[in-house]
Design a protein that fits this description.
The chain is mainly alpha-helical. 69% of the residues lie in helices and 0% in strands. The chain has a domain at 86-256 and 319-348: MetI-like (MetI-like fold), CATH 1.10.3720.10. The chain is built from 26 helices and no strands. The chain is globular and about 80 Å long.
Length: 585
């Protein structure tokens, strides 16, 4: 090999083009960036979590002199409601995940493996459930299923002459029901790529052996797709543990407490019980890490290969007359779980008194007029837009850098970056919020200045959405051939030129998608920012929660509709700018 060629280009020109890799002989921009990202991620993720555990042994409030004690742990364990809250948390999460996983498997199978009519339209509608905020949809369900004035309760009591309402949204099953649309959409998004990539020859073999379609689904398709199903189930279970807003609105009136609402309760005591809250967070975190370890232990050593180097058959199966049944079932689910509460929510904004249909004057537009003249609302709207834009821009930049280094870099430490980027999946939003609260209030006077600012809220959202944003970017980078980078190096361009002139333009559609997703997440998020905001940095979602707590449901539903409208506007703008669904990645 000609040494001059290697020293000039940085890689071996005698190897096949597709297998060349850049060899760095000195500390490059990529090396510096890799080390910098490891440090930043460790500071943003590992440090707050570690500090949260340490502060569980501190009795003093943030900013006061440190007083070490174990009273927080003693108080948490002596709380008679803690076992009940833990039981409620895991019961609700388990039941919800089992139901939504079954629904998601069915929908993913229908959309990817069958000839069901309108399946592309069905996929879009199921994606819609992911983007809609939980709290406004819950208000729609309250208007439908409240035991006193719920429209569906009134309808069934009148039709069937019932003496008592058949539904009660303020119950365990009411909480589970209000989670179904969003949770099913998340499971569906995670399972669809695996169903699309599976070799149809495996299912054909099952049919040839004499099994019917249902038997093939249960005995072949689902077992073969074990990793996707287990990963989706584990992720869904962990995410279900963090739910806060629905449990606050529906659970507390019924006396149903879960761990996140207990943490919220400790923080809002006067004075706040920070030691108990952080101790409870630590206990919760231990349970979550045990679940992650159990999930990895179950999959260790098992072979789930379904996509190999050989060509495989990808086709849909004819359901005959049953295809209209599957189409009807899917559309019925979307209609009932998404459009029905959404329509009811809009209707509730025009009611004189929310839920009261027997008044002499039932309908009005004064709540809308009052919203747009309310200084608090206008400030919250501005905060929401600034938070969304800031998190979308900052998050997309960070996710692109992380995703690129994980996929393309050969430097030591990229595995650490990958692990750290996944850490927020294991952290419920309320834990991230409390960890950041302790970080800014207990780490020096300069960081205290961040408390209550939108910068801190942006940081929380960027951390929370890091796993999803990074994985989407990683999938996009993997689709870009490394030959483009090698060609740019051969042409004399440095790494920054390649990154700015070649990689970023190719990633633009994906970056727009990630930015839209992060913006929407910021607009609807409550658990991640609930302890970080003040009166001046309240978002529309937090203002809606405050309105519900104050008993002002009329303003709450108006705010909910505005959040939904903002999300629809973002999706429309994103579509014009090149937004695309990323589940196939």
């Amino acid at each position: 090999m000609n040494p001059s060629l290697e020293s000039t280009t940085g890689f071996d020109l005698t190897k096949p083009v597709g297998s060349r890799r850049i060899a760095f002989r000195k500390l490059s921009w990529r090396s510096i960036l890799s080390l910098l990202l490891i440090g930043i991620l460790a500071l943003l993720l590992a440090y707050p979590v570690t500090l949260l555990f340490v502060k569980s042994f501190v009795a003093s409030r943030p900013g006061q002199a440190t007083v070490w004690t174990i009273n927080g742990w003693i108080g948490a364990f002596n709380d008679a409601t803690l076992p009940i809250a833990l039981g409620n948390t895991f019961f609700l999460a388990f039941v919800r995940v089992m139901i939504t996983s079954g629904l998601a498997i069915f929908f993913a199978w229908v959309v990817t493996r069958t000839d069901t009519p309108l399946k592309g339209f069905i996929e879009v509608l199921l994606w819609l459930g992911f983007f809609l905020p939980l709290l406004p949809m819950t208000m729609g369900w309250i208007l439908l299923l409240d035991p006193h004035y719920g429209l569906l309760n009134r309808f069934f009591m009148k039709i069937f002459a019932l003496s008592a309402p058949p539904f009660n949204v303020y119950s365990y099953w009411g909480i589970i029901w209000c989670h179904l649309a969003f949770s099913t959409s998340v499971r569906f998004m995670l399972m669809t790529p695996a169903f699309s990539a599976m070799d149809a020859a495996l299912e054909e073999a099952g049919l040839v052996s004499g099994s019917n379609r249902a038997g093939v689904l249960m005995r072949v398709t689902i077992p073969v797709l074990g990793p996707a199903v287990l990963a989706s189930t584990a992720l869904g279970f962990i995410r279900s543990l963090e739910s806060l807003e629905i449990e606050l609105v529906l659970g507390i009136p019924a006396g149903i407490y879960v761990v996140p609402t207990k943490i919220w309760d400790f923080i809002h005591w006067d004075p706040p019980l920070y030691d108990r809250a952080t101790a409870l967070c630590s206990i919760f975190l231990i349970f979550i890490f045990l679940l992650i370890w159990l999930h990895r232990a179950l999959l260790r050593g098992r072979d789930f290969t379904t996509v190999s180097g050989r060509s495989h058959l990808v086709e849909t199966f004819s359901l005959g007359r049953w295809r209209w049944v599957t189409c009807t079932l899917c559309l019925s689910f979307v209609t009932v779980m998404i459009f029905l509460p959404l329509a009811t929510l809009v209707m509730g904004t025009f009611m004189e008194v929310f839920g009261h249909f027997d008044l002499e004057k039932t309908w009005t537009t004064r709540h809308w007029a009052g919203a747009f003249t309310d200084a608090v609302f206008l400030r919250s709207l501005k905060n929401t837009i600034v938070l969304g834009l800031g998190a979308a821009i900052a998050g997309t930049i960070v996710y692109v850098l992380i995703g690129y280094l994980i996929v393309r870099s050969r430097l030591p430490g990229r595995g650490i970056i990958d692990i750290l980027s996944w850490l927020p999946w294991a952290l419920p939003g309320v834990l991230i919020s409390l960890a950041l609260l302790w970080t800014v209030l207990g780490s020096g006077d300069y960081l205290k200045l961040m408390y209550g600012t939108l910068s801190l809220l942006i940081l929380g959202i960027v951390i929370k959405e890091m796993p999803l944003g990074t994985q989407i970017i990683k999938a996009a980078v993997q689709q870009i051939s490394p030959e483009l980078e090698e060609a740019s190096r051969a042409a004399g361009a440095n790494w920054l030129d390649y990154f700015r002139r070649i990689l970023l333009p190719l990633l633009r559609p994906t970056m727009v998608s990630v930015g839209i997703i992060v913006f929407i997440s910021a607009a609807r998020d409550i658990p991640t920012v609930i302890f970080l905001s003040t009166h001046d940095s309240r978002t529309l979602s937090l203002l809606m929660l405050d309105s519900i707590a104050e008993g002002n449901q009329e303003r709450a539903v108006v705010l909910g509709v505005l959040v939904v409208f903002l999300i629809f506007a973002l999706l429309f703008i994103g579509r014009l700018l090149g937004f695309r669904r990323v589940s196939a990645q």
